[in-house]
Amino acid sequence: MSPAARCPPPAMLAPALLCAHLLLAAPASRAWPGAAPDEPEPQPQPQPEPEPGPGAVAAQLSDMHDKVTAIWQQLTQRAAEPGAPGSALHAACRVQPSASLDPAQPRVSGLVLFRQPAPGAPLEAFFHLDGFPAERNGSRRAIHVHRFGDLSPGCEAAGPHYNPRAAPHPHHPGDFGNFAVRDGRVRKHRGGLAASLAGPHSIVGRAVVVHAGEDDLGRGGDPASLDHGNAGRRLACCVVGVCGPLPWARAAREHAERRKRRRDSDCQAA
Ligand SMILES: [Cu+2]
Ligand SMILES: [Zn+2]
Q1: How remote is the CA of residue 211 from the centroid of ligand 2, in Å?
Q2: What is the pLDDT of residues 143-174, one digit of tens each?
Q3: Separation of 145 CA from ligand 2 center, angstroms?
Q4: Is residue 169 a part of any domain in this protein?
Q5: 115 phi/psi in degrees, rounded to 5
Q6: Ligand 1 center–CA 212 separation, angstroms
Q7: Helix, strand, or coil (residue 217)
């Protein structure tokens, strides 16, 4: 047989190649009519999660906060046991009259110092303030920690009370209460404060605000009382910043000397 007789003529070869190409490119289910269709297995549909209510969200947030705080305290307390040298945290707040102060209002200034023996331990503070009207001896002025630390437009810029756990007033960590004014001054040491200089709810970078009025401590009977205690105008404020131990040591020495002088004068008067 001649080669020409074994090979199909070129006119028949082209349609045959085209048919073979189409058969190879077609999906199996279509290439073979009558074969079972290649349908995907039915998948279980995910059920929508029920929407958590506001109480559940608050509980989750509170639980998350407690876990973060516990981890943070474990990490820091290994190097900062209470009483160990250098373990205490210190901060200072240089109080200045509000930039937006009405000229008729007293210009209060001074220094608030904080000391915390270790992260998680109760905070103590010295409040040294001057500039109150001397004629109102016995008046009481509220002092709180407020949320923001940018005070350039005035103490109003400090925003509301610092309230990381959505608690009512006076249960915010920086609700320091009322301070008696004597001879135009406040000289007070307070311990057992709930605020902290460390951890997720540190007050460092936030504002201390001195008010013109007295804090009603949530007993005012109106919604504002549970928000800010109706403490009145913001006379002075400052931003809490980390510092070394020396300012606290100086204030503690002066405080001890003042108490000794007072005791001595009481003894002479008796
Ligand atoms: Cu306040
Ligand atoms: Zn408050």
Answers
A1: 12
A2: 999 999 999 999 999 999 999 999 999 999 99
A3: 8
A4: yes
A5: -140, 135
A6: 10
A7: coil
Place of tokens 């906060």: 65
Taking the centre of ligand 2 as the mean of its atom positions, its distance from the CA of residue 144, in whole angstroms, is: 7
pLDDT, one tens digit per residue, over 76-133 is: 554 555 555 578 999 999 999 999 999 999 999 999 999 999 999 999 999 999 999 9
Q: Which domain holds residue 96?
A: 89-269
179 in a structural domain? yes
21 domain-assigned: no
- Ligand (nearest to CA of 224): 2
Nearest ligand for residue 227 CA? 2
Please return the burial class of 55, using the count of CB atoms within 10 Å of its CB with bins 0-12, 13-18 and 19+.
Answer: exposed
The CA distance from 170 to 197, in Å, is: 19
- 97 within a domain of the structure (yes/no): yes
Burial of 261 (0-12, 13-18, 19+ CB in 10 A): exposed
Number of domains in the chain: 1
- Nearest ligand atom owner, CA of 175: 2
d(CA 176, ligand 2 centre) in Å: 8
Predicted TM-score of the model (pTM): 0.71
Catalytic residues: 144, 146, 161, 169, 172, 175, 211, 234
Give DSSP secondary structure letters for 18-48: HHHHHHHHS-HHHHSTTSPP-PPPPPPPPPP
The CATH number given to whatever domain includes residue 254 is: 2.60.40.200
